[in-house]
What we know:
The relative contact order is 0.05. This protein has one domain (about 5-75). By secondary structure, the protein is mainly alpha-helical. It has 2 helices and no strands. Positive regulator of amino acid starvation-induced autophagy. Keywords: Coiled coil, Cytoplasm, Golgi apparatus, Membrane.
Amino acid sequence: MSSEDGDMENQAELEEKTRLINQVLELQHTLEDLSARVDAVKEENLKLKSENQVLEPRPYQRTGLTDPLILLKPETRFCL
């Protein structure tokens, strides 16, 4: 094997290592981006759950009644 063959082999190994390092760095950035996205989605999910609790139907709505005054005693309905 000549020194020229050895140099070409070393160059090919160096190029392969460089390619692999670049691929690892790209995957690392992709993972960081995905992790940030997951965190953002979790936050949004918590926010929406909180909003949904505020918007949940009230007890009188669950029973099919639409007017909360119906739940009041007849003598107190018009004393509001």
